[in-house]
Amino acid sequence: MTQPSRLAIVPFVSVDRMMKLVLAIGVERFLTELAAYIEEDFRRWELFDKTPRIASHSHDGVIELMPTSDGKMYGFKYVNGHPKNMREGRQTVTAFGVLADVGSGYPMLLTEMTILTALRTAATSAVAAKYLAPKGARAMAIIGNGAQSEFQAVAFKALLGIDRLRLYDIDRSASEKCARNLAGKGFDITICSTGQDAVEGVDIITTVTADKQYATILTDNMVGSGVHINAVGGDCPGKTELHRDILLRSDIFVEFPPQTRIEGEIQQLDADHPVTELWQVMTGKAKGRKAPEQITLFDSVGFATEDFSALRYVRDQLQATGLYEELDLLADPDEPRDLFGMLERAAMQPAA
């Protein structure tokens, strides 16, 4: 069988290679370097094509496409969110992504993004908290201790120095799993019996639950002055985690308002309720945390530029690590106009 040409080959990072890549670099270093790429692209915000993700909703969940381009490279992610999957032994969220060259349209990378999405979500949370959390923050509550929780904890430790965690989940075994996975990683961990208990004395509250419904994970009385709320779980229409009154007391920061107003916590508010875009804070166009008693809320739904940053970062690691496979993905006939002839000639080649 004729070997494919170099133009036919696209680097492919499988789940196995992604895990090896993250471990070869080190989880904290990976998150720190990825966060730098995310922040760099937020600072270039005005260069990017921006559109709310394209979502197909069903009773069981959602399937989404998240595209963007900076004019030189194009990236997209396919991602689903199906909370019922856990009961069937499957992941709630799975994803893969593509990075392509705008000039030729040729893909430059195809990669798993289930693991990578968990990493980029945590890195984005920590980047936002750099600008919004109280100075000297050390303690964080994580409410919802599923697949994302450990990544959030490690990212906040790597970027902000968080070393005290208070964990709560309606399923205590999830909190025990989280504590087990984070043992020996420099945290003082407390498993709490209620959400109210979890938020006592913390500087940052992270909510990262999975149910696809309006929920009240945090009630108004649970949130005191001066905290930063990292609201991760409310990320599609009809799915929220915070009581509306908390939003009314908070200064709210978002990624892309047209998407967040549909999917985020602010879907509970009037369409003209004031919010601040995160890129404006990073570039100095707007203020982040202004006073010690201020409640800041990062209404995180995830945006395509963050996936673009993650794809860029992974591609930049491949040459040094070699942790990818060569995928024969693109048809490349000897004569570009003779695709049919390429097919016909394949019939005359001996089987591999």
From TrEMBL:
<dbReference type="InterPro" id="IPR003462">
    <property type="entry name" value="ODC_Mu_crystall"/>
</dbReference>
<comment type="similarity">
    <text>Belongs to the ornithine cyclodeaminase/mu-crystallin family.</text>
</comment>
<dbReference type="Pfam" id="PF02423">
    <property type="entry name" value="OCD_Mu_crystall"/>
</dbReference>
<dbReference type="InterPro" id="IPR023401">
    <property type="entry name" value="ODC_N"/>
</dbReference>
<dbReference type="InterPro" id="IPR036291">
    <property type="entry name" value="NAD(P)-bd_dom_sf"/>
</dbReference>
<dbReference type="GO" id="GO:0008473">
    <property type="term" value="F:ornithine cyclodeaminase activity"/>
</dbReference>
<keyword id="KW-0456">Lyase</keyword>
<protein>
    <submittedName>
        <fullName>Ornithine cyclodeaminase</fullName>
        <ecNumber>4.3.1.12</ecNumber>
    </submittedName>
</protein>
